[in-house]
Each structure stands twice: as structure tokens, then as C-alpha cells.
Amino acid sequence: MLRAKDIMTIKVITVTPETKITEAARLLLENRVNGLPVVDSQSRLKGIICQSDLITQQEKVPLPSFFTILDSFIPLTSHKNLEKEVRKIAAVTVEEAMTCDPITVGPEISLEEIATLMVKKNIHTLPVADRGKLVGIIGKEDVLRTLMSKGESD
Fold first, then answer.
1. Were 76 and a residue from 23, 36, 52, 65 both cysteine, which residue would form a disulfide, CB within 3.0 to 4.6 Å?
2. CB 17 within 8 Å of CB 46
């Protein structure tokens, strides 16, 4: 049975929280990857920055909706969510736009579990961590490549 350690990319392109958004965008495009793990100086995973995080910067600020009861305004969206969206739109560094605490897998997880997780959670890039440290990354292409080579050997 194939495991994460068998299909993951070991030479991972990473960024730090201090990396400029423009540099992260350049790395994503030049390397044709969907996401970059964000690590600290000890290779501990802090988050992930994906193409979708950068596209968020082009969104309009979502205006909160309100309704009134007895002359009081009650917001339909939380103030915290609005602040988070504004921060992402105005981000200059990776830390301001990244997804914190991304879903990760360990090196021993099976290919079937990886595929299921990617489909159910709509994940394109899955960091592989061992005791909090980044050891590899799996993209949907890695899973497809494995399935293709498996199909050719049948």
C-alpha cells in the first residue's frame, strides 16, 4: 500500500511569514504549484498560502448585512469575519494572507486516505508534517501521477 512518504515531493518550495505577497505569487506561477507551505526558521509549519488566497486580494470588501428589531441594528455577519477579509485583501506579507493551521497529513497515511481528504475538503495542496515539521508536500498531480502509473502496471 502506498503512503504519503512514497508519493510526496521532498524538495518543497517554502516561504516565511515575512515573505512579500508579490514574491509568493511569483513563486507560485514560476513553479506551477497551487500552494506554498509557510514555515519558520526551524521548518515548523505555520500555514499555507495558495493561489486562492492571492485571488482573494482582488475581491471587493464584503459589506455586512443588517436587519433591525426595535430600532436596533443586528449584523448578519460577524465583525471578526469582516476584519479577517479586509486584512486578506490588504495583505502585503504572506502572514497576512495565509491560511493558518492548514490540514496536514503524516508520512504514514495511505494514498486512499489522502485522496479522500483532498476530495472531501477540496484541498489541492497537502503539507506532510512529522511532529510539526514540514517533511514534504502532496499535490493533486502527485496523486494522479501515482494512479496513472498504477493503471499502466495493471
1. 65
2. yes
